[in-house]
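Incident log, structure service

09:12 report received: a user says their structure output differs between two submissions of the same chain.
09:20 pulled the input from the user's history:
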Amino acid sequence: METTERADRFYDEQVLDRLNERMRDFAGRQEMFFLATADRHGECDSTFRAGPPGFLQVLDEKTLVYPEYRGNGVLASLGNIEENPHVGMLMIDFLRDRIGLHVNGRARIVPDADMRTSYPDLPVDPVPGRRAQLWVEVTVEEAYIHCAKHIPHLQKVPQQDRGRRAWGTDDAKRKGGDFFGAAAEAKEREPYEREGPPPHAFRAAAEQVLADARKRGAVEPEQSPFTGWFV
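09:34 re-ran on a clean worker, output below:
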């Protein structure tokens, strides 16, 4: 495609091995980002993380941390990180600057108690569903711009349905229900067979992730013990 010269120029001019001041400011005010992980076999997964501004904490020019909230119980991202620490993060500002930031690096899972021992100034979120038991710490290896030309410009609207932001809920309707109709079709199709280890093995591995994290740090006494996401 004869893009070598452009690619070389991009790496020379735009790719950093750290977050400069503008990147740190940009990351620190984001309310969401997209996360890419892969397991030890290279099987990939992409997901979405969101929270109030500042939920993605910039600790220094080489370190980002974000809390893990209650999810669907699969623990795909955490399970992948335990097997393969390489992650890719994409932050996009759709509202103001209409620009994006890529961060590639190595991640590790840290219990909340251990993270607060190392960084005692981390904020404590007052919303129960946003009280992290685990954090993911990302050591930055690459940081670079995502160009603006195809990023749509969106506008924020007043939040009317408070139930859509019910953090930590297990209410199926609030979580989206069977929006794509997969559950309704379950009796009419063959069960999904995941390549690689069977589902019960993956679940056992995911539960081991949580068990290992508990061993590395105790739950803070004022919080209820963490029972995992398989409720």
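09:41 both user submissions now match this output. Likely a transient worker issue. Closing.
09:42 reviewer note: The CA atoms of residues 38 and 44 lie 4 Å apart. DSSP finds five helices and seven strands in the chain.
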